[in-house]
Amino acid sequence: MAGNFRHLRIGVLAFQGDVREHIHVLEGLGAQVVKVRRPEELGTVDALVIPGGESSVMDKLVRMFGMQQPLRDAIAAGMPVFGTCAGLIMMSDNIVDAIAEQESLGGLHVDVRRNAFGTQIDSFEVQLDMPGVTKDPVPATFIRAPIVERVGEGVRVISALPDGRIVAVEQGNLLGISFHPEVNGDSRVHEYFLGRVAQYVTEKKASI
Amino acid sequence: MTEKQNSPLTGSTRVKRGLAEQLKGGVIMDVVNAEQARIAEDAGAIAVMALERVPADIRAQGGVARMSDPDLIEGIQAAVKIPVMAKARIGHFVEAQVLAQLNVDFIDESEVLSPADYINHIDKWAFDVPFVCGATNLGEALRRINEGAAMIRSKGEAGTGDVSEATKHIRKINSELRWLSSMSKDELYVAAKELQAPYDLVVEVAAAGKLPVPMFTAGGVATPADAAMMLQLGADGVFVGSGIFKSGDPAARAKAIVKAAAFFDDPKVIVETSRGLGEAMVGINVSDIPAPHRLADRGW
C-alpha cells in the first residue's frame, strides 16, 4: 500500500530535536532525506519536515543562521511542510504563551498554545483517530505538547482529543500535528504527507 | 477500541524517553537563580538545571552537597518556559519524590551531589518524571537504564572546565557499543556478565548498536569547540555546568555554545562562535585532583 516515494527529496530541519526519528521513518518509506540547516540545502528539497524539539530554541537558531526568510518564502511558494509538536508551533501564524520575543514562521492560519498540558508529568500517550489520514487509530505521544486554539480560513481539523481540543490540522500543503508519531516509529502520518508531496511534485512538473 | 487503550497514559517509558528525544542537539545549562535561568533561556538553552551551587563551587567549598531548596527551584520554574531539571543525590529517593512533587520536568540523579546510598541507585521506574543518570562506561549506562533512566549523561569531571574526562567517557561508551555490536549471539551471555548488565538489555543494545535512550555529555565543557567535539564524538547534546556562569561573559558564551551545538560539524561556524567570548572559566586540570575527590568515581 505504500506509494513509491523514491523520487521525493525531503528535508528535515536539523537545528535541534528528534531529527533522527523523522529521518528513520521517512527513509523507511523510501524517500531521499537531507538535513536542512542552510538556505542552499532548503533549495534542493521538494518538501520539509519540522521536527519536535523546543520551538523557542528552533526559532532562535533559524533566525541566527538566516533561515527565517528562506523558510517563509518556501512556505509562501507552496512547499509542503509537515510539523510535529515544535514544528506545528513554528508553522503557526500566532503562538499563545510564547517565550519572550519568540517568532514563528507562520503560514498555517492557526493560534497554537505552547506547552498546553502542563509540565512533563502531564505528558501522555493515547490512541488517536485521524479520519482521512489513516483508517486505524495512531499511537500518539504528546510531550509538553501544544494545542490548536483557533483555526482560521482554509484550515481543516484532522484530529481532536475526546474533550474537543484540536491536535492535528491541514491547510493546503501544510500539515501540523501536536504529537509525535515518529517516536513510536509509526509511519502512517508521514506516508500520508509523502502522498501529498508526490501529488504536489507531479502538479508542479505539469505546470512548468 | 477498548476504553483502556483510549485513556491517556502518563509516565510511560515512551513518554519519558520521548522528552529526552526532543532535547537532542540542545544545550542544558546549570543555573543557580531566576536571573541566570532567564539568561540561559534567552541564549537558547534547551533546558535549565536548577541547583544551588554550580559544580565548581561545590568542589571549592566542599561539604555535603544536597538537593536544592524548593523555593529556589520554584523561582526558576516561574522565570522560564523551557523545561526545568533538578538534581537529587544518588540513591536519595525522597529527594526525588520532592522534586517530582515540584513538577520538575527531569530529575538528574547526580554524582555532583554527595551520594546518599553507596549501594543502591534510585528505582526510577517508580516515578512518572523522567531521570537522567551519569555513566563512565557502557555497563554503568545499562545498569542505569535498567533502573529506569530515560537519558544517559556521560559523566566527565564536573566543575573543572577540563573536558578530558568527558572525552574519555563518551569514547569509552561508544567503543564498547561497537564491541558489543560485533559479537555473535552466543557471546552475549558472557558480554552481559562482563558488563554487569541484564542480558535482555545487552541483546537489545547489541542489535541496535546504540543505547535505547539519548546520550548527552557533561563534565568540563567550557567552550563552543568543547561542545562541538562532544557532538562530533556522537553525543546527542551537552550539559554545561560551571562553564557558562563561571566565565567572563555568560550570555555571549551561552549563545555561542548553542550555535556551536547546532553546527557542530561545520568548523567555519565554530570559528565564528569562538570569537570574542572573553575569559573562559579558569578551570582545574583533572590530573591535579587527587583521586578521592573525583566526582566521576561516584556511582557504580
Would you mind describing this structure in some detail?
The complex is a heterodimer of chains A (208) and B (300). In chain A, 28% of the residues lie in helices and 28% in strands. Chain A has 208 residues and is an alpha/beta fold. Chain A has one domain (2-207): Rossmann fold (3-Layer(aba) Sandwich), CATH 3.40.50.880. In chain A, the strands form three sheets. Chain A has a seven-stranded mixed beta sheet. Chain A has a three-stranded mixed beta sheet with strand order 5-6-9. The longest helix of chain A has 20 residues, at 188-207. Chain A is globular. The model of chain A has no long low-confidence stretch (mean pLDDT 96). With 300 residues, chain B is of the alpha/beta class. Chain B is built from 14 helices and nine strands. In chain B, helix 3 packs parallel to helix 5, helix 8 packs across helix 10 (199-208) and helix 13 runs antiparallel to helix 14 (267-274). The A-B interface holds A 14-21, 37, 52-54, 56-57, 60-61, 64-65, 85-86, 97, 99-100, 114-115, 118-127, 137, 141, 143-144, 162, 180, 183-184 and B 1, 5-12, 14-15, 17-19, 21-26, 41-42, 44-47, 80-83, 100, 103-106, 128-130, 258-259, 261-263. Strand 7 (124-128) of chain A pairs antiparallel with strand 1 (9-10) of chain B.
Structural class of chain A: alpha/beta
The proportion of residues forming helix of chain B, as a percent range, comes to: 40-55%
- Oligomeric state: heterodimer
Beta-strand content bin of chain A: 25-35%
| Spatial shape of chain B | globular
